[in-house]
Structures are given as C-alpha cells and as structure tokens.
Amino acid sequence: MSSAIHTVTGAFGYTGRYIAKQFIDAGYETHTLTSRYPVDNLFGDRIKANPLNFNNTEELINSLRGTAVLYNTYWVRFNHKNFSFAKAVDNSSKLFDAAKQAGVKRIVHISITNPSIDSPLEYFSGKARVERALMESGLSYAILRPAIIFGKEDILINNIAWFLRNFPIFGVFGSGNYRLQPIYAEDLARLAVEQGRKTENIIIDAIGPETFTYRELVKQIRDAIGVTRPIISIPPVIGYLTGWLLGKVMGDVIITRDEMKGLMAGLLCTHSLRSVQANLPPIGATKLTDWLKENSATLGIHYSNELSRRKI
Questions:
Q1: Structural Rg of the chain based on CA atoms
Q2: What is the pLDDT of residue 44?
Q3: How far is CA 184 from CA 84, 158, 209, 256, in A?
Q4: Which of 127, 278, 291, 310 has the fewest CB atoms in 10 Å of its CB?
C-alpha cells in the first residue's frame, strides 16, 4: 500500500468508522467526506474531514484530489422528507463522477446482497442502480455485498435486544424462517482495505460464517442477554403497523415495508458463488454468537435511534 490518501465516506458513522480506523491505526493519511461532525470525534486530528456536499461539484472534486482509493459507504435506509432512495442514487453518481475528475484510481463500494434493477423494492433496485453507475464510470472498482453488519454501533441487533429487554413478547413476521448472514463490521472493513490494494474489478458477497433464520437470530440474542420472552409469529401487516406505531412513539423509523419484504423474501442471504461453487469459506471470520456473548452486558441497554443519528 502506498502513502497516498485514503478517503472514506461517513467515517463518523457506522461502517465507515471501521474502515477509517484501519488506515488511521496503520498511520496512513486518511480523509473523510461527511455531513456529520460529532462532538465526540474519536479520531481527533488524525483524520481530515471535508463536507459531503453533493450540490457543489467543484468542492467535491477538490476534496477528493490526491485520493488513491475512495471507500464509499454512503446510502440511506428509507425514504424521508430530508432524503430518499432516488436522491441517494443521483448523489452516488455525482460522487463517482467527482472521483473520476479528481483522479481517484479505485472505488471500494459497500452495497447489499441481492440487488436487482428489476426489484419491486426500492432499496434493492436503488442499490443495483448505484452499482451500475459505478461499473459504467470507467473507474476500477470492488463492490462488496454484505447482508447485515453487526458491531457495537449497530442498530438492528441492538434494537432487537432492546425490545426483548423491554417488552413481554417478541413478534416475528410470519414463520420467521427466512435466513440472514450477518458479517462483523471489522471483518467487512478488513475486506474493504484488502480490496483497496487491488486493481481488478470484482463483486464479492461479504457474508459471515453463520447463517440464521430470523427466528433463530432473535433466540440467539434473547439467550445472550439472559431474558425469557416468548417469540411468536404475527401477520406481517400487524408487525409493520406495530413497528410504525412504536416508531411514532420513539421518534424514529423502526421497520419499513422494503425491509420487511426483503427480509421475508430471503434477500439478506445469498448462495455465494465464492462459498458454493468454489468451496471457499465465507469472507467474515467473526461469529455473531461469540460476539453476542462478549457484548451481552451492554447490548440493548439503550435504544439506537436512526433519525437522531442522521440529525447529528
């Protein structure tokens, strides 16, 4: 790896934080493009922060000058009055264009398992359009497709634990037998850094070593935090409406229709060509079951609010 600049979008967020830390700990010059400037900046002056301003092309280009590899984690989880999937697709194209004009050599992009242009779910079709924009940009790229990313700053796993701690029952949509393949945030970051060193265009299913049904995942979390709560099947419409109502109470978006439908359709699980055809192990090495045991004392103690994070 050279001494060139490595730029990470959203280094003060979740996935971007783990990627940036890899370079900062190794002593490389690290920059971030961000719309979020937290008071508790854990990196201090070891990272240079530039605004992620999609409306100022010249500023975006200048912020990327000297960057060898751009690690892109930018996306939105749902449509909102302040952001949308359509806008995120457009912004991603602007970012790739700016990177090309700035002389960036390679982009490592975090996507999602099973994206499809034809998907009726805007989350997955939007992710596919972003991938296509990157592939058509002419830049060298690595596209990493994780399903669920777990870590201390995670929202999904933490909030499942929070609901288990605070409610007498836990409902899963339908049977709960649809599958997920979580990957540890640090394992994904190491993969991103590894791919940043390479030049070949590649798409990788970034999955961890364990596969769970959703019901099994909830059971693992329940057992790890030491609570006894029945896990019951509920009609998807009831689950969605309950999530919507609780979201209003919490001032957040707990579950979206796209997330619910994608989960139940098995889109957070993949028969990876890497693991199935080539008979190779999954990318991630860290087991969620081990991580849950190590973090059981703090997991779900506080609710993680997605909208509050975006307002910081």
A1: 19
A2: 83
A3: 27, 14, 10, 23
A4: 278
pLDDT of 188 > 90? The answer is yes
What is the bridge-based pairing of β-strands 170-173 and 148-150? unpaired
Give just the sign of the alpha carbon dihedral 163, 165, 167, 169.
Answer: positive
279: left (phi over 0), alpha (psi -120 to 50) or beta: left
Q: What average pLDDT score do residues 103-119 get?
A: 96
Rounded Cα gap, residues 108 and 69, in angstroms = 7
Take residue 274 and report the two structure tokens written for it: 């890497």
Look up residue 49 and give its two tokens: 């922060």
Residues 6+ apart with CB under 8 A from 45: none
Q: Mean pLDDT score of the chain, rounded to an integer?
A: 91
Predicted pLDDT of residue 39: 56
Structure tokens at 205: 């299913």
For the segment 60-76, what is each residue's pLDDT rounded down to a tens digit?
999 999 999 999 999 99
According to the 3-state scheme, what is the secondary structure of 203-240?
Answer: EEEECCCCCEEHHHHHHHHHHHHCCCCCEEEECHHHHH
CB burial string 59-94: b at 16+ within 10 A, e below = ebbebbeebbbbbbbbbbbbbeeeeebeebbebbbb
CA 43 to CA 35: how far, in whole Å? 16
Which pair of structure tokens corresponds to residue 237? 């419409």
Distance CA(173)–CA(243), nearest Å, equals 11
Alpha-carbon span 119 to 128, nearest angstrom: 9
Adjacent-strand bridge partners of 170: 231
Q: Which residues pair with 71 in a beta bridge?
A: 8, 108
pTM, to two decimals? 0.92
